[in-house]
Amino acid sequence: MSSKAKVIAFANQKGGVAKTTTTLNLAAAFAEEGHRVLCVDMDPQGNLTMSQGIDPDSLEKSMFDVLVYDLSIREVIRRREIDVACASIDLAGAEIAMSTKIGRERSLEKAFRPILEDYDFICIDTPPSLGLLTINALTAADKVIVPVQCEYLSMRGLIQLQNTLSMIRENLNPDVDIEGILPTLVDSRTIHAKEAIEILEENFGDRVFASRIKKTVRFAEAPVRGMSVLKYDPDGMAAQSYRELAKEVLGNGKR
């Protein structure tokens, strides 16, 4: 085990691609394998925070205070199934509040420094945009996982994300790279989904994970209960697909 956490950002500027679901459940799968995992909620909607049974409105301090006022990230971490650095709606104002801050793209990276040895993995859920919050996540990350919904495959979005990444590599974080592209919400009965995955593989080759996340009602039920799908339905298909993804990611690393 290397002593420093591997930081993975989950990014796609398109909403509704199962980004939060993937962040949480892959983190839970890492934890099941005995890894120490932190999830960081960088989305003002706070879905990741809520999906661990935490009410964002009840928080006195959140990632907003970490990013804007340099509060120690330890102050906003709650221990649940995995550790969660919580978000609240305040975060919606973070981009404006940070706009005058020197080194504003590095606020998250700086916040992570004191805790990198406390965890094996830090998984960051990002908002559906390529604004300053996502740029902070990509600047702090070693790798990026891109969940892509196969119904209406947004190639344009992927190209935009790649452009943002190359800008970040040039200016902020030379080593960040796409770990993999994850087909989500796959409805394997449709020809369109099969075609979409073929197009993905033609364009991105072995960067497309072998794992597929299929559509299932379990994904909607689990967060309402404040738990990952691995805890809610441990023997189900959904839980299994995230365990397989975890093996794939762990196998890719030099761990």
Describe this structure in words.
This protein is of the alpha/beta class. It contains eleven helices and seven strands. Strands 3-4-2-5-1-6-7 form a seven-stranded mixed β-sheet, sandwiched between helices. α1 (19-32) packs across α11. The termini are close together.
Topology of this structure?
Blueprint: E1 6-10, H1 19-32, E2 37-41, H2 47-50, H3 63-69, E3 77-79, E4 83-85, H4 94-98, H5 107-112, E5 121-125, H6 132-140, E6 143-149, H7 155-171, E7 177-184, H8 191-204, H9 218-224, H10 229-232, H11 237-252
Parallel strand pairs: 1-5, 1-6, 2-4, 2-5, 6-7
Antiparallel strand pairs: 3-4
Low-confidence stretches: none
Run of helices and strands: EHEHHEEHHEHEHEHHHH
What's the total count of β strands? 7
Name the helicity range: 40-55%
Largest sheet: 7 strands, mixed
Q: Looking across the biggest beta sheet, what order are the strands in?
A: 3-4-2-5-1-6-7
Q: DSSP helix count?
A: 11
> Mean of residue pLDDT?
92
Gap between N and C termini: 6 Å
Instruction: Label the structural class.
Output: alpha/beta
